[in-house]
Specification:
172 residues; alpha/beta; five-stranded parallel β-sheet; two-stranded antiparallel ribbon; 4 helices; 9 strands; 34% strand
Length: 172
């Protein structure tokens, strides 16, 4: 199945010159969604990545991280924007193109030395994934790898990530 054919391109969104890769068209296709999760699972297993937890970033990382965690027999941990989690949190502030942002995870979500796979829908510059990796490593967890549905190769996000396996399904 050609996953690219299920991802809609929206030119000039959110600003002129940007081509937005819209996964809502993939999500609404039952066969495409099933194929995506099955292919993602197979690539992770083929790479020998063993994780106790899949960590997914708000919000599209939740959509793929949760079923992936189920398929590989791991728990799922959400990483959210500030103020969204009700208990005590670990947080990390990171640089964006035009300022800073912050991510949070419950303090009791992960224990030191557990194995973590970080999942999101897309890697562009790698800023959010890198910040999430720093958060996970700050706790003392072993980062086993990253998984993304889409990789925007021209933005070279991989160079901003730790040296662990990176699995992608579609490249632009």
């Amino acid at each position: 199945m050609d996953l690219k054919s299920l991802i809609r391109d929206i030119p000039d969104f959110p600003k002129p010159g940007i081509v937005f890769r819209d996964i809502t068209t993939l999500l609404r296709d039952p066969e495409g969604l099933r194929h995506t999760i099955d292919l993602f699972t197979q690539k992770i297993l083929d790479a020998g990545l063993k994780a106790d937890y899949v960590v997914g970033m708000e919000s599209r990382g939740f959509m793929f991280g949760t079923p992936l965690a189920y398929k590989i027999g791991a728990g799922f941990i959400p990483v959210r924007k500030p103020g969204k989690l009700p208990a005590a949190v670990h947080s990390i502030e990171y640089e964006l193109e035009y300022g800073t942002d912050c991510l949070e995870m419950h303090q009791d979500a992960l224990q030191p030395e557990c194995r973590v796979l970080i999942v999101d829908d897309l890697i562009a510059t790698g800023g959010t994934a890198s910040a999430t990796a720093q958060l996970v490593q700050k706790i003392g967890c072993e980062l086993v790898g990253f998984g993304f549905i889409i990789e925007l190769r021209d933005l070279q996000g991989r160079k901003n990530l730790p040296d662990v396996p990176i699995i992608t399904l579609v490249e632009y």
